[in-house]
Fold this protein.
Amino acid sequence: MDSSVHRAPAGNDSPYTMEARDAAQAPEAAWEAKGEAWVLRLRGDWIGSGSRFPDLPARDPSSMRVDAAELGSWDAALASRLWAQLEPLAQRNVPVDLQGLPDGLREIVSLALNGTPPPVAAPEAKPMGRVARLGARTTTWWVDMQKTLTFFGEVLLSLGRWMRGGSDMRASDLLWQIEQTGPRSLPIVALVSFLVGLIVAYMGAAQLQRFGAQTYIADLVTVGVVREVAALLVGIVLAGRVGAAFAAQIGSMRANEEVDALATMGVNPVDFLVLPRVLALLIVGPMLTAFGAVVGMAVGWLVAVGIYGVTPLEYVYSSFQALTLPHVLVGLIKGTVYAVLVALAGCLQGLSAGRSAQAVGDATTASVVQAIVWIVVAASALTVVFQRLDF
């Protein structure tokens, strides 16, 4: 093995420098050949610019590494001289191993040579046990629950300020949100209600026909659509169309620091951004539910009259007989609750979004999922409550 060594003198030191180094080790740099590979060894304290490196090897090595096991103190000047020494080798595509350098010095030299920091091995993570995972999930769930309850409280306080006349909400914002969430949602609500009403009427009529009870198609469609189906369809449609839009709009404003600007100017973001959207869906929710119920009943009329031979007047009479006030009120209450939950979910996720495009997209997705989950939970709870109340 070739063990030739190229050493560099410490340089011309002045008396002042020699006195300062009485308690320090003189800097030294040496190239050592290890077969076709070379090692640059650094020793001593490299402080200041009085020391120099040896000349590069006469031939390019197959690879080289830096050994700084005996390196003492160093400053930024050493990083500059290392870069000047190693940059020609890097230009000639000689592999350079900097793992022997101290962490800070290695990062500086690697950035200078390659433009990217060196890979740092991540600490080995120990797998969490079942109890630890359960605790982590419980903690996350509790933090999310606290955030949600805090948001609900802020919305209620904002509603109270609006009722007392001290809110930052503008009437023009409320009217704009009503126009965006109400009339613009009619086409998709009509389409979905038509198709689902067709399914309910056709499947229900197919079963009733087995018993010769086609005249009860009107009762089935009217009660089912008015009491349950219309409200549920409107809630899901609003979750996908309106709730996602709320989350994207507010999330984008948060990413652009517009929400922070409102707070800096003394404008309450909940009053200005959340309350108009919640009130808009509170107003249009029952209207869209009633519209969806009418479309569903009309589809039931088409199926009963056109396919199963029920006379038009008989269907209309049976529908009015089945359409009692409790059924109408239950459907409207459910539609209103679902719409408000959609608005709360969209605004909550928008205000909780991060400050990047990816975070806004995640918030939009989370708002739809959360709204649908809340709707299903609310539907189950309200159904049980109304049944227990015999309403």
Notes: Confidence is low (pLDDT under 50) at residues 1-23, 116-122. Residues 5-114 form a domain with the Transcription Regulator spoIIAA fold (CATH 3.30.750.24). The beta strands are 5-7, 28-34, 37-46, 63-74, 96-97.
